[in-house]
Design a protein that fits this description.
The protein is about 35% helix and about 25% strand. By secondary structure, the protein is α+β, with helices and mostly antiparallel strands. A hairpin with a 6-residue loop joins strand 8 and strand 9. The radius of gyration is 18 Å and the shape is globular. InterPro entries: GHMP_kinase_C_dom (IPR013750), GHMP_kinase_C_sf (IPR036554), GHMP_kinase_N_dom (IPR006204), Homoserine_kinase (IPR000870), Ribosomal_Su5_D2-typ_SF (IPR020568), Ribsml_uS5_D2-typ_fold_subgr (IPR014721). This is Homoserine kinase.
Length: about 290
Amino acid sequence: MITVRAPATSANLGSGFDVFGVALDHPADVVSVEKADETTIEVTGAGSQFIPEDPKRNTVGAVVEALDAPAHIKIDKGIRPASGLGSSAASAAAVAVGLNELYDRGLTREELVPIAGEGEAVVSGEAHVDNVCPSILGGFTIAANGDITTVPASIPLVACLPEIAVSTRDARRVVPSEASMDDVVHTVGRAATLTAGMCRNDPDLVGKGMHDRVVTPVRAELITGYEMVREAAFEAGATGVTVSGAGPGILAACHSGDRREIASAMVDAFADAGVDSRAYQTRIGDGAEVLSR
């Protein structure tokens, strides 16, 4: 049996739709895999009652098929489904890493990324890797056209998760099919700023680079209290605020000393909007880790 911890992630970061992602130091999923003649899945933990255990309907089933590695899989969810924190991606990433070692497939971490990405198609209808990439590799990742770049950044973050659900499929439906040239130029500039900030470990540059005028505004409309929470986070010291992945999670970049106040301000703002929430004081962290063999 092999046990793997795979971290939550935040994709897009505002200006990097379907390209940027970061691994979060916490929360995380812990997954155990054991060889079996037929694949079975057992799920416990956060939101487990909403996660199908049928391999054909669970993200990890596609990973098992791609690696031709049947197993009994136990998933302890630390990341709530439909959170915008890469819940499905973490499970897929952990299973990919675990089965690769269990069956001695010999694939590199980079080679496991597209395999884990196939599991995302079960949830969103598309095989994209902006969440599985940082969950496997860690750090800040740029994934585009099959190429992956990783930056070992360590930016402090606050991820605030409201007790509402936004499905990935619904969040993708509202994404505009077109953008003006002004918005494209603005997005490119912000994405470049964010990337430079990650390379320099500069929370101020990262925060400036998170602003987006194309995808974030329409997704924010799906999140009750978003503008109030965003404003509260900035007032408490955040350098940048955006929707985490498909939402409803909201991500704030900041300096280390401001995390506690920002987390409290975001939770209070959601409460003022009539929504319960939980905030994680975290930072960009490492990718999937084998805990035991």
